[in-house]
């Protein structure tokens, strides 16, 4: 059976499908010794595929749930020498990369995988995967501010999708509030900017749930591999 070249590269754990497309169009992929730059090219098991001169081999797929600590970068490498999420998996014999990202100073649930198809599905906006955050904010949300968050606020000229808002705790003495915010978007600094749009700064932020997955039984810096049942559920349902 012939498959699209970018799909084969993604399934080999080389990169996500989107990055595989970039590898192809930028002239870094050959098939049977011939340079291929056209997306949609189909290949089968008999074709010899190389990325930057290195043959690819279909890799066993793995997905892990990491409890990302604060002050860790959600990238494969960092030019500033900061600790990255891949540093937690150095002893594993396969390369993992993060599904999406969490800010440097944000902790919580982050998926790590070498399954490019799964990563692409989870990050595609149309699937609207729910993400649940708990934020410690300065001041207290008013009824109108809660309404705005629930119905969408404008950030850089773009209105956010409706969100779910739940007040967890209010500390009048410290002038802070713990707020649970559920969204399905993943724009840069999304949660912080949503609170900023209603005039509140986020002092601390953690992602507590991703789809149906939680941090249960893990402490900061720990991880566990997802079960086959969990992976199948991620592939076939939104939440």
TrEMBL record:
<dbReference type="Pfam" id="PF00849">
    <property type="entry name" value="PseudoU_synth_2"/>
</dbReference>
<dbReference type="InterPro" id="IPR006145">
    <property type="entry name" value="PsdUridine_synth_RsuA/RluA"/>
</dbReference>
<protein>
    <recommendedName>
        <fullName>Pseudouridine synthase</fullName>
        <ecNumber>5.4.99.-</ecNumber>
    </recommendedName>
</protein>
<dbReference type="InterPro" id="IPR000748">
    <property type="entry name" value="PsdUridine_synth_RsuA/RluB/E/F"/>
</dbReference>
<dbReference type="InterPro" id="IPR020094">
    <property type="entry name" value="TruA/RsuA/RluB/E/F_N"/>
</dbReference>
<feature type="domain" description="RNA-binding S4">
    <location>
        <begin position="3"/>
        <end position="60"/>
    </location>
</feature>
<keyword id="KW-0694">RNA-binding</keyword>
<dbReference type="InterPro" id="IPR020103">
    <property type="entry name" value="PsdUridine_synth_cat_dom_sf"/>
</dbReference>
<dbReference type="GO" id="GO:0120159">
    <property type="term" value="F:rRNA pseudouridine synthase activity"/>
</dbReference>
<dbReference type="GO" id="GO:0000455">
    <property type="term" value="P:enzyme-directed rRNA pseudouridine synthesis"/>
</dbReference>
<dbReference type="GO" id="GO:0005829">
    <property type="term" value="C:cytosol"/>
</dbReference>
<dbReference type="InterPro" id="IPR050343">
    <property type="entry name" value="RsuA_PseudoU_synthase"/>
</dbReference>
<dbReference type="GO" id="GO:0003723">
    <property type="term" value="F:RNA binding"/>
</dbReference>
<keyword id="KW-0456">Lyase</keyword>
<dbReference type="GO" id="GO:0016829">
    <property type="term" value="F:lyase activity"/>
</dbReference>
<keyword id="KW-0413">Isomerase</keyword>
<dbReference type="InterPro" id="IPR042092">
    <property type="entry name" value="PsdUridine_s_RsuA/RluB/E/F_cat"/>
</dbReference>
<comment type="similarity">
    <text>Belongs to the pseudouridine synthase RsuA family.</text>
</comment>
<dbReference type="InterPro" id="IPR002942">
    <property type="entry name" value="S4_RNA-bd"/>
</dbReference>
<dbReference type="InterPro" id="IPR036986">
    <property type="entry name" value="S4_RNA-bd_sf"/>
</dbReference>
<dbReference type="Pfam" id="PF01479">
    <property type="entry name" value="S4"/>
</dbReference>
<dbReference type="InterPro" id="IPR018496">
    <property type="entry name" value="PsdUridine_synth_RsuA/RluB_CS"/>
</dbReference>
């Amino acid at each position: 059976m012939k498959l699209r070249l970018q799909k084969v590269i993604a399934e080999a754990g080389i990169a996500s499908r989107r990055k595989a497309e970039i590898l192809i169009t930028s002239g870094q992929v050959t098939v049977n010794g011939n340079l291929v730059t056209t997306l949609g090219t189909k290949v089968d098991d008999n074709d010899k595929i190389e990325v930057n001169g290195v043959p690819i081999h279909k890799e066993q797929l793995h997905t892990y749930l990491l409890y990302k600590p604060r002050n860790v970068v959600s990238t494969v490498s960092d030019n500033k020498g900061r600790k990255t999420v891949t540093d937690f998996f150095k002893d594993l014999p396969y390369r993992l990369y993060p599904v999406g990202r969490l800010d440097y100073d944000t902790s919580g649930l982050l998926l790590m995988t070498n399954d490019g198809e799964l990563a692409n599905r989870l990050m595609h906006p149309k699937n609207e995967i729910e993400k649940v955050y708990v934020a410690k904010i300065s001041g207290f949300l008013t009824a109108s501010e809660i309404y705005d968050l629930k119905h969408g606020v404008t950030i850089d000229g773009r209105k956010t999708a409706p969100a779910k808002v739940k007040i967890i705790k209010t500390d009048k003495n410290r002038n802070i509030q713990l707020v649970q915010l559920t969204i399905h978007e993943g724009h840069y600094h999304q949660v912080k900017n949503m609170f900023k749009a209603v005039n509140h700064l986020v002092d601390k932020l953690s992602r507590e749930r991703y789809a149906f997955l939680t941090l249960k039984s893990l402490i900061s810096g720990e991880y566990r591999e997802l079960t086959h049942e969990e992976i199948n559920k991620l592939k076939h349902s939104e939440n």
